[in-house]
Give the backbone structure.
Amino acid sequence: MSASAPTLRSLAKQLGLSRTTVSDALRGSPRVDPKTAERVQKAAREAGYRRNPLAGALMSELRRSRGTAFRGVLAAVDFTEPERPDAAARFHRELVVGAETRAGELGFKVEKFAVGHAGLSVQRLDSILQSRGIHGVILLPAWDEPDLSNLDWTRFAGIYTDYIIERPALHSVCSDHYRSLLAALQRLASLGYRQPGLFLQRHQDERLQFRWGAAFRAFQENQPEIRAVPPLIVDAYTKEAFVRWFKKHQPDVVLGHHTAAIDWMADCGAEIPERHGFVCLNKNMTTRPCAGLDLQPRTLGARGAELLIAQLQRNETGIPEWPSTTTIPARWSDGPTLRTGNAGHARTP
Amino acid sequence: MSASAPTLRSLAKQLGLSRTTVSDALRGSPRVDPKTAERVQKAAREAGYRRNPLAGALMSELRRSRGTAFRGVLAAVDFTEPERPDAAARFHRELVVGAETRAGELGFKVEKFAVGHAGLSVQRLDSILQSRGIHGVILLPAWDEPDLSNLDWTRFAGIYTDYIIERPALHSVCSDHYRSLLAALQRLASLGYRQPGLFLQRHQDERLQFRWGAAFRAFQENQPEIRAVPPLIVDAYTKEAFVRWFKKHQPDVVLGHHTAAIDWMADCGAEIPERHGFVCLNKNMTTRPCAGLDLQPRTLGARGAELLIAQLQRNETGIPEWPSTTTIPARWSDGPTLRTGNAGHARTP
DNA sequence: CGGACATGATCGGACTGTCCGCACGTTTCG
DNA sequence: CGAAACGTGCGGACAGTCCGATCATGTCCG
């Protein structure tokens, strides 16, 4: 019994074997005599041997990648959807850039694949990934719920980069819309706005399980000095409906995705930014300069790659027993559609 | 220029130095001549050297704990709070069990520490963890916002097992209260309940940024066949306030933490489970048998350990640039306080 | 001026577990 | 009987870090 914890080498010496044989025996390699293996395992149990997990991870990676420069490849899978708004393309690109960067730092490469409609069939994707030896899949957001249940998930680890995926139910990475909207409203209040209004397309809120609307109402409910303006939630954006709502409830700041609303407000006599304001709920989706939330697609992509690589390093494939959602708050971004105040911090925690 | 990625040794050879000097130079050790250090750093940049994070983590552990046993160890840190409800103890225990189990599978051990009030000071904890060579910290939930900003976070990776921690702003793991309540309400609707009521202590909702209340209202708003009952949110539980609310709005099912409400409902003439129902929002906090949400502390603890170990394996310490929150939906659990229906699945997605 | 001592800069050794290739001895088979 | 195949075990190389050793130079004092 030595003072320090048993290692492979001390065990090997004690047994009169080489460290290699002990290592192989403990991991059940077929290269060692079953009798020897049992003897080693018994001795390891008795000595209380516990393998160093870090060294294990390091060495297997090291040995595997001998010579070759990169250690692994991830697939970024995009669903080609004809109805998807064009603006989403930039968001997708940023997601991929973030994933590529982080993956690169961790020794992985990212390759892009397009699936559905104008792209590959799911079967075809499956066989390509299999033959290329790719085991990590990042699924980019789809406007309608994507279906990749036909992939042979016993061989893949996957991450979805949006709130919810049911087919299959994978881990996901997403912006924290609820928290971000609360923080944005708080900021607007500190800038002196008292009647914020929310302007959304129904589908936009539905696919987030109404998180935008819920955060908006929760804020109104818990801030006595805020005058309640009912959210305007429409099936399709029309100027007419917006103008009616705006004139009736007279919000002093509007939060929404559709930047054309800035013009509609002006047409109603709003003075931006002196007396009224507009906040875009996803700045990455518009080119028009305005204040709003940066949903940080790069950070999301990076975190997605990180989670995926962690799974691969644990050698975990398949559909998780309990899928989790990892969220990151949006970053506040100033712009010309709001009056300036003494609010300083760039982060919206 | 070699085919494979540059290593410490290849760099050292190229520069005519030893690997030790190169390593020290790149990490800014005061032991090397500043001129040499600069030369090394320039060469490293040009060669595109990237240090292997796994090897770094392994070796620093190994060297630090020379002789003595290095095994991966995580610290589970609990804040001793006098006002904390007793029921929370069980939740904490389950969290730790989950973390221990998952950590064990990945080759790590978990040790418990109590901080504050009746336990260690933060300074003391810092020095204990340092001298024990522990770099992973799981923070258990505190009723009030915990403060561990005095720990030297350049040497630790941490995970908080509740929604929000600001001091410091770490990654966290938590139940998905918003999604879980929506799913529970959906289930109640499918069982025929039409007037659900929510009964909360204000602090319980505040510390979740009103997610319970927000999900409740979002559901009412988007389900036309549900009759709106205003939530009852109180500073302290009293029978009187509950009875007044219950008689006025006549909910047919009440969702809340406080199981004494079951008796109060009965006193008002409610028939449980034939015509009325009660749903507990955190079954792990009560011993009374009833239907409700299992927030799955074991799964949360397990996922927390997983995320923490992933950080350690990447040799990442410190406060993350963009803290993320990882959420897991609650599991629905049947019980005698609800009438049975034809709803089958155990999971609440 | 020379020896004792301090300081600065660099190096070597040892440490973890894994995987590939090699070696040695035995069995199989044409 | 010789060659090939197989079973089993071993050694080398690999990553980055930290402690102590080493060696050159500078400083101080008798």
Observations:
- Residues 342-349 of chain B have pLDDT under 50 and may be disordered.
- Chain B touches chain A through 57 residues (CB under 8 Å).
